[in-house]
Design brief:
Blueprint (H helix, E strand, L loop, with lengths): L11 H40 L4 E5 L6 H8 L12 H8 L5 E8 L4 E8 L4 E5 L2 E5 L5 E5 L9 E3 L7 H18 L7 E4 L7 E4 L2 E4 L5 H18 L3 E8 L2 E6 L4
Parallel strand pairs: 1-3, 4-7, 7-8, 10-11
Antiparallel strand pairs: 2-3, 4-5, 5-6, 8-9, 9-10, 11-12
């Protein structure tokens, strides 16, 4: 028999309802606390973002471009918000210059922005009509130059990059072999022409050398041998044909 002072047992369903209500109340408290912290952090970050400004722009890696050129590209000045423009956007702006092959941007909380660029290296000059344009190893047009500079780099003459893509690609590959063979020494006074890969021709020392496509290292070695023989024998040559693997053709100038 139940004692008069003993409390009646709480129904199980009522007890579970109370526990669920307590759990929901605790969950809402945690969520509210999280939201409050997030809002506070966002406010603090936004405030700090506004307070930290660019104190210095430091550029490195330039050989051709000037600091003023890069500043125009990035459109960022001292006094601007440090985090106002994302680093990815600054890099995108830099990459619009054909001279910039890559760029790394680093921001410091002191306000310094460090910008390191990798520049394109001119490998040849593309001549179209009376226009001379520096190009890199990928054939990208870099900058127009005076015609007098054609003595410093190989000249690709009369090969339209958009209309003669195969010949242009082959000419670029030939230029790279020329640079490798010369070991960084001057590679000027060389003119490469031809509308098709198999018609690729090198003009050197006023001699026309039919090069054709591919196997450029062997062909340059053959050319060096032939030039030495021509000099020894004092022969005037109309053209040299190196397109054949096992045969060198030398056409002397007709003396008649």
């Amino acid at each position: 028999m139940r004692s008069k002072t003993e409390s009646p047992a709480m129904p199980l369903r009522t007890q579970r309802t109370i526990e669920a209500a307590k759990a929901r109340k605790h969950l809402w408290f945690v969520v509210a606390l999280f939201v409050l912290c997030a809002v506070s952090f966002a406010g603090a970050f936004y405030g700090a973002k506004k307070l930290v400004v660019v104190s210095e722009l430091k550029f490195s890696g330039m050989q051709h471009l000037k600091q003023s050129d890069l500043q125009k590209l990035i459109r960022l000045r001292t006094g601007d918000e440090l985090f106002g423009v994302p680093s990815s956007e600054i890099r995108t702006r830099l990459m619009k210059s054909p001279w910039v092959k890559d760029a790394v941007i680093r921001k410091e909380l002191t306000g310094r922005v460090l910008i390191s660029v990798v520049e394109a290296v001119p490998r040849a000059i593309l001549q179209t009509g009376d226009r001379f344009t520096l190009i890199d190893r990928d054939g990208v047009l870099l900058e127009e130059v005076p015609g007098s500079q054609e003595k410093l780099l190989p000249v690709i003459r009369g090969i339209d990059p958009s209309q003669m893509r195969d010949a242009y690609r082959e000419a670029l590959a030939f230029v790279e072999v020329i640079h490798a063979k010369r070991g960084g020494s001057a590679a000027g006074n060389l003119v490469i022409s031809g509308s098709r890969p198999e018609e690729l021709t090198l003009t050197v020392d006023q001699i026309s050398v039919r090069i054709g496509a591919g196997d450029f290292e062997r062909k340059l070695a053959d050319l060096q041998f032939v030039k030495e023989e021509i000099a020894k024998r004092n022969i005037r040559v109309e053209y040299i044909d190196l397109r054949f693997a096992n045969r060198i053709v030398v056409k002397p100038v007709d003396q008649q």
